[in-house]
Amino acid sequence: xxxxxxxxxxxxxxxxxxxxxMIGSGxxxxxxxxxxxxxxxxxxxxxxxxxxxxxxxxxxxxAGIENVVVVKSVGELEDAIAKGNYAITDDAMLLCRAEHIDxxxxxxxxxxxxxxxxxxxxxxxxxxxxxxxxxxxTIGPILKVYADREGVIxxxxxxxxxxxxxNLYRYVKSLGLTPLLCGNIKGLQDPYRNPTTQEGFAKQxxxxxxxxxxxxxxxxxxxxxxxxxxxxxxTIAKRGMLGYDFNRNKExxxxxxxxxxxxxVDDLTKMYDVDMLKELGGIVxxxxxxxxxxxxxxxxSHDDPKQQxxxxxxxxxxxxxYSFYHPYHLCHFEVPLSVARVVLLNDVILAPLxxxxxxxxxxxxxxLKAGETLxxxxxxxxxxxxxxxxxxxxQRLLPMGLVEGCRLKHDIPKDQVLTYDxxxxxxxxxxxxxxxxxxxxxxxxxxPSLVA
Length: 452
Prior knowledge:
The chain is α/β, with parallel strands linked by helices and about 450 residues long.
């Protein structure tokens, strides 16, 4: 943060702000617009795309910006930027192609549309900061291949739990410890929640019911932990992650693991077998109903007895696992910091190391019937859960990010994982083409047979 704020201050003093375009103007987009406009010197949000022009205008107006113009071409967009006006448009590709935009923030949460935007931005050598774990988990590895070829950065962001986890992971590694678990703290986990059950909460906070549902039914945390796994090389202990739930099973968990439990994440280091974690190369996981929620944590080990003595002195305990945590994640407040890290420091917040390590697979939320067309993420028919990418490939499991619009060939019972063989994919989708390309690009190397 010290480096970032200093770099932004220098851009502000030189009259050369980082120019940002934003794709989307929903709940989080409005927060980002307000944050950049009022709290981030050295950065300007020069253009917003929205399907609804008036929603984009509202995002600016809510941030106190009135000199807003509607643009229909790249030339009009460039002219607005040159004159110090703020552009709104219902054509996302204009932002991708405009020369005087340094980076895009993608905040739609869509996969098919988001893929078109990201590829166009990359083709025009734009950095892209994703607030879109859904797309990142589904086709992030192949999109990063495209970004690398063009010499630009495609990354997740600060503020969302994955970015906060990655920052903590990097910090712990910098201290000389070995991170063995990257965790996310939840207040609720119920795979059968739907937009009807979550409608009241969504209205209370001005959010969309299906988005709130994706948090409650575990789909969102699965996407988030999958991209942490893909950015660290960690895996999962089992399908769906371990997901210890202290709201539902506190007494049983305390007895099973012999915990001295005060309700804090620090108490949970004894729940994980260090040798197992090391053998797996580390895991991603989540816990429910512990403090500090909704924070994140990293459990790490240290092999040096001298340093173990110091860690004990500094109140981190005797090990073998040491707990580090961040007690909050501030979403839109931190996203502009990601833009600055990327544009000014060439620093990647979180991106796949290579091919996927963990996927998110579609699972029936209810009994499904042949001939039905599946709805999308956070709705009534499916939820997502983490699975190892090699198992996803071997069993032809259907990625949760591709589920919307698929037509069922067979009846599927509640809680069964769907496969490609169970559905007909919609025709002509870019996301399906990119997923197939990703599977082929990162296919395991075939070992030649020794048998003639």
